[in-house]
Amino acid sequence: MKILTCPAQLQRLEGILRNSLPLALPVFGAVLNINRGNPGQSEVLVDKWPEFGAVLARPSGEVANGFVGHWGHWGALGLDLGMLGAGLGYWAQPAPGVRVGSLSPSHVDLLNDTWPYGGNARSRRFLAEILGRFPQVCLQDSSGQPVAWVLTDHFGTGTHSYTLPEHRRHGHMQVALTVAAQRAHARGFPTFG
Fold first, then answer.
1. In CA terms, which of 9, 60, 115, 158 is 20 to 30 Å from 103?
2. Which domain does 48 fall in, by range?
3. What range(s) does the Glycine N-acyltransferase C-terminal domain occupy (predicted)?
4. What is the pTM (predicted TM-score) of this model?
5. For the segment 41-100, what is each residue's pLDDT rounded down to a tens digit?
6. Is residue 50 in some structural domain?
7. What is the DSSP string of the chain?
8. Tally of domains within the chain
């Protein structure tokens, strides 16, 4: 396996993967993140270059130092934000008294408690990591408390979206997904409707 470190090769890989969507979606988001500052400190490996048959994404140095990272082994799981129904042509407005904001590190326990895979120290570390490194959208009530949110991960996919039960059925998730999809699209990430 060859680790791609050359910016020109990574840009070329991005173009090749873009032309292979949706099949390439699991690794495409990781390559996009790498080419846009690499907030997750990831690396991409190919079986050979430039006529590769396999592409893997992983945390940088995972094999060399034995570290598996908070986000697991090679590969990707998840859905692109746009696949969740956020159309770029429609601008959903927050309900009265609700505004678009952002989550802070102080919200990590709330995220961990509401994530289906959460509730433990490992998931809390993972959520704190993606909260600090990757784009997210949060709708807040008039007091600044989160009511709905969308988090993205190392692969540019939606990893944790949630609306607090008492705030459901007001269109908050549609607004959060639309804003997240628009922001992802502005950064060059694909969205699917």
1. 60
2. 2-59
3. 137-192
4. 0.66
5. 889 888 889 888 888 888 887 554 443 333 333 433 233 333 333 333 445 678 889 999
6. yes
7. -EEE--HHHHHHHHHHHHTTTTTTHHHHHHHHHHHTT-TT-EEEEESSSSS-S-EEEEETTHHHH----TT-SSS---B-GGGGT--TT--PPPPTT-EEE---GGGHHHHHHHSTT-SSHHHHHHHHHHHHHS-EEEEE-TTS-EEEEEEE-TTSSEEEEEE-GGG-SSSHHHHHHHHHHHHHHHTT-----
8. 2
